[in-house]
Write a structure and sequence with these properties.
By secondary structure, this protein is mainly alpha-helical. The protein is built from 6 helices and no strands.
Length: about 140
């Protein structure tokens, strides 16, 4: 029996897969680590895009910049989106304010203000838009 050749994992297909995994409750930190270790870094990018609600091009810019501040802001975007999801439909206002989702440093403080985190996301969103001719797709 012949096996079909592997299908290329393009961004659109990976976003569909990540959305399916999220809907099934399987798009977790452990799954993303397994995908990275398993040689599927593009699925990790798609998963982060789906979890954070940020366009894939923004995720790519953040990670390719190797910016600790950018990655921290991305992680908090994922956590903030999860907090809103847990609040349930129509209860977004009942979700914990973003400032309450921030993780403290070992000394109890947080390395960046909320404004600085938002600036990081805006910076990488602007970079992604600039490199794509001013247009970025949300999906």
């Amino acid at each position: 029996m012949l096996t079909p050749p592997p299908v290329a994992e393009g961004p659109a297909k990976l976003l569909v897969e990540a959305k399916r995994l999220k809907a099934e409750g399987k798009l977790t930190e452990d799954m993303l680590v397994d995908a990275l270790v398993g040689g599927r870094p593009a699925l990790v990018l798609a998963g982060l895009s789906v979890l954070s609600g940020l366009p894939l091009t923004v995720i790519e810019k953040i990670l390719s910049a190797h910016s600790a501040k950018g990655v921290t802001a991305l992680i908090l975007e994922v956590e903030a989106a999860d907090a809103l999801r847990r609040a349930g439909p129509g209860r977004a206002g009942a979700a914990a304010p973003r400032s309450e989702t921030l993780k403290p440093r070992a000394d109890g403080g947080f390395p960046l203000s909320e404004e600085a985190l938002e600036w990081q996301i805006g910076f990488f969103t602007d970079m992604a838009a600039e490199s794509s001719g001013g247009v970025i797709s949300l999906r």
